Amino acid sequence: MSTQYNCQKCPGYCCSYPLIPLEKRDVERLARHYDMSFDDAREAFTKEAHGRKYAMRRKKDDIYGRICRFFDTDKRSCTVYEARPGVCRSFPGEGRCGYYDFLKFERRAQDDEEFVALTNHG
Ligand code: SF4
Ligand code: SF4
């Protein structure tokens, strides 16, 4: 199946999910990447939340309210792409991204290719 979304044309909606769950190996990868100890990386990048031991820390974002701490809010892209967690590698899977479909629809409807569709994470 061909990929029907283009992350370059999206302001990074999936990076604004309230829970970005990391596994231990994701924290280990980030620690290696930044040459930090596991505990320092865990403290700097994650917190216990939503019933998860390692939930990604977030920061303020003008578009979505809050977004992943590794997101560059000016360039609208990931600053840690090579060392990003597994969940970011597998999202949204082959084929389609629901948000991108929504974004394309709204941009067509508004006749504005730059339009940013806002939705509620619920
Ligand atoms: S929401 Fe979809 S199109 Fe946007 S960055 Fe994430 S995967 Fe890419
Ligand atoms: S690590 Fe990168 S791809 Fe994953 S949520 Fe954060 S900014 Fe997005």
Automatic annotation (TrEMBL):
- In which domain of life is the source organism classified? Bacteria
Q: What is this protein called?
A: YkgJ family cysteine cluster protein
One Pfam entry for this protein is: CxxCxxCC
Q: Which PANTHER family match?
A: PUTATIVE-RELATED, YKGJ FAMILY CYSTEINE CLUSTER PROTEIN
Tell me which species this is from: Hyphomicrobium sulfonivorans
